[in-house]
Write a structure and sequence with these properties.
The protein is mainly alpha-helical. It has one domain. It has 3 helices and 2 strands. The protein has a two-stranded parallel sheet. Strand 1, helix 1 and strand 2 form a beta-alpha-beta unit. The longest helix has 10 residues.
């Protein structure tokens, strides 16, 4: 199985009979929500419940890495 942000790569893999999953390009990952990750999870592990735990250490890590970019909506603590 290929997980890639290239439509062309995914189409090639599928043309040879394998599975692929196209993700949004990584440069835009800060604007995404967890639905894409959840969809991939269900495809790879259909019988395992999906759960993202929003822990404060993750928020601090993201703040340190992306000081000028906002946190993804799905990562913000509610």
């Amino acid at each position: 199985m290929l997980v890639d942000d290239s439509k062309r790569h995914c189409e090639f893999v599928e043309s040879i009979g394998l599975k692929s999953f196209k993700v949004k390009p990584y440069v835009t990952h800060m604007d995404t929500d967890p639905s894409e990750l959840e969809e991939l999870h269900k495809l790879v592990l259909p019988n395992v419940p999906f759960s993202i735990k929003r822990q404060s250490w993750i928020t601090k890590k993201y703040n340190g890495l992306f000081k000028k970019k906002p946190l993804p909506v799905w990562l913000k603590q509610s």
